Amino acid sequence: MGTPRGQAACNLRLLLDRATASERTAGNIEPYVAPGKRANSLLWRHLRQRDNTEFIARVRECLIKEGVSEQAIAGCLRDLLDAPGASLARKQGGRHDFLHAVAFTDVYGPCLAIVRVRLSPGSPARVDEVGAKVVPFESPWELSEYLEDWWREFGVRQITLPENVPARTVLWVGDPQRCGYLDVPGDWQARLRTTVSVVGMKFQPVVAKEDWRVRRGQLMDSAELAVRLNGWSAGRAMLDGTTLGETALVVGTVGSSFEALHTEVRRSLVEFVLDDAADDAGRARELAPGEVVYHRKTGAGGGSADRFDEGSSKPCGCGKTFVIFHNADKASKGMARRYSNFHDSDVQLKHCPKFPKCGMYAVERKPTR
Asked: Whole-prediction pTM value?
């Protein structure tokens, strides 16, 4: 018997967007979750007609035992119960299981609070089980892993997106089972699909030349990002001469494990979907005199501006001296979003001489004399 399909509002951006909500909420929790109040969460729609004073006290006690500070407790409670960053539900064996989570900042740093509730049907519903857990986290891809676990546990199928925002598509090119990767599970496509789904994108795999021949036009029109598996030579030939090929993200190392590949894919996709926030002018930083930063392109962004990774002080392994990049309008727009002084006369955009076979860029500011 398969896992019952559940409902979810489960998206990395949603979880991160609510990360500071608890800091804006103070005072008692009761006014936010009073009986009869319009419910924002799946859980509270089942509980809103009952007196939940005792239930709220139980959740609060669980959070305090997990170390949540008095300063953060009210906001954390409110978000967990009525405005969670992640909300999942399913019906199993006549009972309802719920999982709510919120990212917040407490006195000791960024944390993820998780509450699980099991209800029995009735009027009003009866609370059978309550549990809470609080864990620290350091990076958004850690949150993505939690979302993936919950997505699978609750049998979620529907991607959660903001209103009026169409789903973007990731074109995956390659089959790790035929390219020399180790310990590849039989459900590798399902695992990657889940990783793509929790960041709010659709997964379209191409694992054979015939797939590409039949669906090329459709995939070219719908895909925003191509992820090409290193080691599958046919993949490069398929994408050569296409816009997707120019911005394709190449992942994996032949001979490594699928787990290592999956981790790389997760981090790359999280970086890609959060890059819009990194593009905000408020986050652009100034390139220091003499500083050189090397970037790989991760995709084509909005407004015809290329997206790039976070950058590194290490160049590619080609061993060549980088040359000035002329007529690179999209790349220049992308770099200008990252560096506030990119258009100054002492800043240059460069590329590896093996471009486009090597997709490494460099942005360099001349030293001060």
From this structure: 0.70
